[in-house]
Design brief:
Blueprint (H helix, E strand, L loop, with lengths): L1 E5 L2 H11 L9 E9 L2 E12 L4 E8 L5 E9 L9 H4 L24 H21 L6
Antiparallel strand pairs: 1-2, 2-3, 3-4, 4-5
Helix pairs in contact: 1-3
Length: 141
Amino acid sequence: MYKRQYLTDAQIERARALAGPGVEVEQGVVTYYVGHRSGRPAGVAYFDAHRVRTKAEAAMVVVTPDGRVERVDVLKFMEPPEYRAPERWVAQLEGRELDDALSTDGGIRNLAGATLTARALTNATRRVLALHAVIAPLGSP
């Protein structure tokens, strides 16, 4: 079941600050899905649509109850196929939390020939984690 959170201007500003420089946070409405396992929250899924270079990419980012990335799945990628991030590269986002290491200038390896893809997907992950921290759908991590 999905849930929806309407953000105040202050919450949007807080999410922008958490996401960091260069990461756009514009939406005032956040839709998310809480998954349960054995009757307890197991994680929260968010969908993020953004532009890579000139075309769209959409990803699902699942966040664990403690605020870490459980998985990232690229659902739509409209740029040329050779610019798509390989699953092995995407896997390096798993287990990450919102810190300085979650950056292509930090602990995330860049993609030779697909720098914009790497940056777009890393920024999408940062945006999701920032919004997750602001709305706290499962309470404070």
